Amino acid sequence: MHVTESPLIIALDYPSLDAALCMADQLDPARCRLKVGKELFTRSGPAVIEALHGRGFEVFLDLKFHDIPNTVASAVEAAAEQGVWMVNLHASGGRAMMEAAANRLVQQRLDTRLIAVTVLTSMQSSDLVEVGVSSSLDEQVSRLAQLSKQSGLHGVVCSAQEATSITSLCGEDFLKVTPGIRPAFAAANDQQRIMTPSNAIRAGSTHLVVGRPVTQAENPMEALAAIEAELGIKA
Ligand SMILES: O=c1ccn([C@@H]2O[C@H](COP(=O)(O)O)[C@@H](O)[C@H]2O)c(=O)[nH]1
Questions:
Q1: What residues make up the catalytic site (predicted)?
Q2: pLDDT digits (tens, 9 = 90+) for 124-182
């Protein structure tokens, strides 16, 4: 497995293993990690993880578990046993769920990073009100980030707009994995809380998740190179 210093994680949101591998084969494990989400994993199962590991990539399995503590702990263990670099759950599942998952990794001596989704980057304040959350969006993200840290997790998924405040609350080493990354050339799509790659790094994001701005670009490799150039990464 290649361990890259790049903060970039490319989201392989594709409907088939073939389509995902076609993109993976154009990418270099020295330049990025890859993210496997619900669509691809539901269609292709663990085979996709094996295929990406075989190509030298570290994999973030983004299945956002949210269930009772025993079920989530067992799912996290199953993911980690596949050797994934990172896996996640929803912080709104609560302390007992997060502690059970984090403890399971420790008990089984599994070296997978476990992070929690705070508030989805596709949501804005009005969406939180609709689901009955009366705190502001920033307060909710901060609360869930602190709860994730207290529960023994390695970091959170948040928008880059919250990265600075999470760093002051939870420390530099606490991972801030930020989707909603939009270079100036890309459309926002369904993302609400967005930031450019360079501003996200300046704000304290430790990892940038980029999907459609690369995978749906007319020339994905040019789009990736433009993001790397913006970040001052030499190709
Ligand atoms: O809050 C979240 C959590 C996860 N995601 C995932 O990240 C990528 C983003 O893809 P883009 O095409 O760059 O929008 C996608 O796989 C989401 O499932 C997120 O966007 N926000």
A1: 62 (for ompdecase activity), 64 (proton donor), 64 (for ompdecase activity), 67 (for ompdecase activity)
A2: 999 999 999 999 999 999 999 999 999 999 999 999 999 999 999 999 999 999 999 99
- For range 83-111, the mean pLDDT: 98
pLDDT confidence tier of residue 110, bands split at 50, 70 and 90? very high
Among all residues, which ones are annotated catalytic? 62, 64, 67
Q: Is the pTM of this model over 0.80?
A: yes
Q: Which atom of ligand 1 is nearest to the CA of 35?
A: 16
Whose C-alpha lies nearest to ligand 1, atom 1? Answer: 120
Q: Is 179 close to ligand 1, i.e. is its CB under 6 Å away? A: yes
> What per-residue confidence (pLDDT) applies to 10?
98
Tokens of 65: 């578990």
Question: What domains does the chain contain, in order, with CATH numbers?
Answer: 8-231 (3.20.20.70)
